[in-house]
Write a structure and sequence with these properties.
Blueprint: H1 5-14, E1 21-24, E2 27-30, H2 36-52, E3 56-60, E4 64-66, E5 72-74, E6 78-82, E7 100-104, H3 114-125, E8 130-135, E9 140-148, E10 151-159, E11 163-166, E12 172-175, H4 177-182
Parallel strand pairs: 7-8
Antiparallel strand pairs: 1-2, 3-6, 4-5, 6-7, 8-9, 9-10, 11-12
């Protein structure tokens, strides 16, 4: 059963701070908790962005309105935008001005990436130029770009350990060698 975005926002507002709710394709979903390796992965990417693009910040878990008609409500692991871009915004921001979203697969996800695919498609439908998925299970990085018609037209994959090229308008490289350490699927 689907719910309205207004109903979701009311539920999300009352949820405990330790629970991250998302609204994807009309359905309420719970974002899985993060372990230490997940956090280190995000901090490594944050450092790379900050060093190469000092006018941009990688905001963790920033609430975004996505999908067609801005009906989705998601919290990407990272949202790259200009410094102070979200000043004055409420809990859910319009994606205009966002350059990139990042999702890091949770430990133990296995091959079920359907939730991440739905989120990716929502980012494309919202016109976010670049989406990066760091796949801890498959030890890889996938970069999606050139959104059009609700999908990304470009997809490029790298193994962890290679130099990842994140295209314009982000325009950074990521040495993914360090990410192999953080991809340890047995870490808790």
């Amino acid at each position: 059963m689907s719910m309205l975005v207004e109903e979701f926002e009311e539920i999300a507002l009352k949820a405990p701070e330790t629970v991250w709710l998302e609204f994807i394709n009309g359905r309420l979903e719970v974002k899985p908790p993060h372990d230490g390796n997940h956090g280190e992965t995000l901090m490594h990417l944050t450092m790379c962005c900050r060093e190469q693009r000092p006018g941009l910040w990688l905001y963790p878990l920033r609430g975004l309105k996505t999908e067609a008609g801005r009906q989705g409500r998601v919290r990407p692991d990272g949202v790259l935008a200009p410094v102070e871009h979200f000043v004055g915004h409420g809990e859910w921001s319009d994606p205009d001005g966002v350059l990139m979203t990042v999702e890091i697969t949770p430990r133990g996800l296995g091959d079920d990436l359907s939730g991440l695919r739905r989120k990716r498609d929502g980012y494309a439908a919202a016109g976010i130029p670049v989406h990066v998925r760091i796949d801890r299970g498959k030890l890889g990085v996938v970069v999606y770009s050139m959104p059009k018609g609700g999908e990304y037209r470009m997809r490029r994959s790298w193994d962890m350990g290679e130099v990842v090229e994140i295209p314009a308008p982000v325009g950074i490289t990521l040495d993914a060698e360090k990410l192999k350490e953080f991809a340890d699927r047995t870490a808790g």
